[in-house]
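Look at one such:
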Amino acid sequence: MQNDAFQDHYPEEISHCYGCGKNNPEGHQLKSYWQHIDEQNLIASTTVARCIPDKKYTAIPGFVYGGMIASLIDCHGTGSASAMAYLSQGRELGSLPPMRFVTGALNVSFLAPTPQDVELTLVGKFSEVKERKIIVDITLSANDVICAKGQVIAVLMPDSMIPKT
């Protein structure tokens, strides 16, 4: 299992996402990793990301802004989808041609207030894996309490989004 983040394997020309792009110094810099890989049943594999949001993402003093939570779920979902696409094809992360996924749909349910100043843990589980579409179900927890659940329908990024160099 690789120890480096999925997002670190995105090609330079498409690594500017505000949530997870390594080339966006103003962004969140979210990093996603394999938590568990099940070689016999790929869909049983899981991913994980952790972060402590900056205080500027305050909803009400002491609690994280919901838009930030949605952003984290979104970026962990697309990163997880990309890693799963490589895994399902038996390819190394970052090998060419790139398999970068973008959000086709995002659904977030807020279950409990999300406290600030604690590490948030995002866990991704796969409910569908196809060549051009991957569905990732994500829980976001703080202090072992699930605060939000989300589903990301990730689609393979169209070539039209890749900058021409």
